[in-house]
Design brief:
Keywords: Cell membrane, Membrane, Transmembrane, Transmembrane helix. It is a multi-pass membrane protein. It comes from Actinoplanes sichuanensis. The structure is a single chain. This protein is an all-alpha fold. Helices cover about 75% and strands about 0% of the residues. It contains 14 helices and two strands, in the order αααααββααααααααα. The chain has a two-stranded antiparallel sheet with strand order 1-2. Helix 2 (about 20-45) runs antiparallel to helix 9 (about 195-220) and helix 4 packs antiparallel against helix 9.
């Protein structure tokens, strides 16, 4: 995307929040936060060749790290700063042993991490237990308490920071080393690339981005529970990254937009009179499965690469 197109997208998305009704503004905020987490997933999967099915665990760690100090009187802005730090520290501690695994072994290990975390949170009375953590104050910046519109711009800023960091990482020497390691670990190691160190670094960075988004999420909703971070959420982040296009900067944003809007549409359809109670969840599972299968079969590199190079993707003859 050239600079003028990028500036146009930025202007449109900045002008959009005041025009949205309240329920659509909530969708806008959650979409931007999901896109922020997906930027990290795309870095991890697209550039480091590692699959994580537990990214929502770092989203949860960031959310609780921001909310817990705030409910005990610590300034909420300091809690927001702690969110990515806590997620990054957790990623370093977990990533050192986990990243020795490869492929589906790593994917299942990260999934297990999330299941263990959710179980621990449900038993932790200091974190609200299964009932959840209530009374989380709103985010206050320079004396101004954010309202719904303020959270839209906070989420926009968080996504912009994530994209800026990702772009600098991709264009840097470590970014090139990561791409080399994802293509051939043996060849990269033979060329002097510290494969393990680079993978741990990008694993930590992706966790920090998820943690930062989690911090905003905690203050926006004002309530957290283990049920706020189901395993399906991690699957959702992976589907967003794959649908949008792994290894691209625009892919996570496009993927998150497509998935969130489709799920919202199906939720509206599933809550129509006469539909069974389980219709919204069943329709959500269905859209994840159909989009993932369609992309793998017909657009293996995702929407963004296919739109950039339609002939290679077989869209045009």
């Amino acid at each position: 995307m050239n600079r003028w197109a990028l500036a146009g997208v930025a202007v449109v998305t900045l002008a959009l929040p005041p025009l949205l009704p309240e329920r659509h503004l909530a969708t806008f905020v959650l979409l931007l936060l999901a896109a922020t987490v997906t930027v990290g997933v795309s870095l991890l999967m697209g550039y480091a060749g590692q699959v994580s099915l537990g990214q929502a665990s770092f989203y949860a760690i960031g959310a609780y790290a921001a909310a817990l100090p705030a409910v005990h009187g610590v300034p909420s802005l300091l809690g927001l700063v702690l969110a990515p730090v806590a997620a990054a520290v957790a990623a370093v501690l977990l990533g050192a042993p986990l990243l020795r695994l490869r492929g589906h072994h790593l994917a299942f290990a990260t999934l297990a991490v999330q299941l263990i975390l959710l179980s621990l949170l449900a038993q932790a009375d200091w974190a609200g237990g299964a009932i959840g953590l209530q009374g989380i104050p709103r985010l206050t910046i320079l004396g101004f308490e954010l309202r719904d519109l303020g959270y839209a711009y906070a989420a926009w800023s968080v996504l912009a920071i994530a994209l800026l960091i990702a772009r600098n990482v991709v264009d840097s020497r470590p970014g090139r080393a990561l791409r080399a390691a994802a293509t051939s670990e043996t060849a990269a190691a033979a060329s002097g690339v510290a494969v393990g160190r680079h993978r741990l670094a990008v694993f930590t960075l992706s966790a920090a981005l998820a943690g930062l988004a989690g911090g905003v999420y905690a203050f926006y909703l004002g309530y957290l529970s283990p049920g706020s971070f189901p395993v399906l959420l991690s699957i959702e982040f992976v589907v967003m990254a794959v649908v949008g296009g792994l290894g691209t900067l625009a892919g996570p944003v496009v993927g998150a937009t497509v998935i969130i809007l489709l799920v919202q549409l199906l939720n509206t359809l599933g809550t129509q009179p006469g539909m069974p109670d389980y219709a919204p969840s069943v329709l959500s599972y269905a859209v994840y499965a159909l989009l993932l299968i369609t992309c793998v079969l017909y657009l293996p590199k995702g929407l963004v690469p296919a739109l950039r190079h339609p002939r290679k993707a077989g869209i045009t003859r």
